[in-house]
Amino acid sequence: MRTPCGQSSRLGGLRLVPAKCRYLVPGERRDGAQSCPPVPRRKNVGITHTVGPLLVGHVMKQLRLMVVMVFIGFLTACARQASMTKQPPPSSNGLESAEEYLLRGDSFSAIKEYDLAILDYDQAIRLNPEYAEAYNNRGYAYYWIGDATHAIADYSRAIELRPNYAYAYNNRGAAYMASGHPDQAINDLDRAINLQSDFPQAYINRGNAYLRLGRFDMAFADFRRGGANPVRTIVLLCAIPIIMILLGAVIMNFVRQRLLAKSRLLSKME
Length: 270
What we know:
Blueprint: E1 2-3, E2 6-7, E3 15-16, E4 24-25, H1 47-79, H2 98-110, H3 114-127, H4 132-144, H5 148-161, H6 166-178, H7 182-195, H8 200-212, H9 216-225, H10 230-269
Antiparallel strand pairs: 1-2, 3-4
């Protein structure tokens, strides 16, 4: 698909739209350790009979937690997939205008130097506090360094400055998805589509939000409108985490068997 400043690539899943012409496409947990109940000491009971099962249980618990975290991490990564659009090179002259800082920030963003991009967007906003594109692009950079809160704030400011900014609505919807709020994402993506009906990235993003909510019929309809193959998209989003879960189960079973064998060996040595 062509954008106002170049071509956009498709990485699958969700799509993000940075810059005034870039498309953002399209998130963590802490578990406290549980104490084990006390085990009564008996005569002639070696310590391995107590430590062995406890060790196995502890390791299995940690492995289960690891598999869950890997699965959630993959879903987060899916929510953050985006198509990138090449930007014009920065001005070779001294940077004096907000536009020049914006263009150089876009160039840094295109090569994933998001911290440097944010510095240039900061300067563009300092020179022009009502520069909606600079807020939108800085939100894009914040999104990609994992700061959805600042990204949403910048997209909201861009929308305040330009109420009909379809790209900013799409991008804020993608950020809401990444932060685990698909309902709010759908509201923004509805608005983006109402403002720009030929917006395939917004349809695909909304399809992913519907998919997250289990509304498969509406998700499939949006994937088709966005030009994506619904079956292929579902496979992309679901097949890899399922494989990872199965692989984790195999690894946990292998470790469990090894630990139990070691525990039995120590028991015999007693």
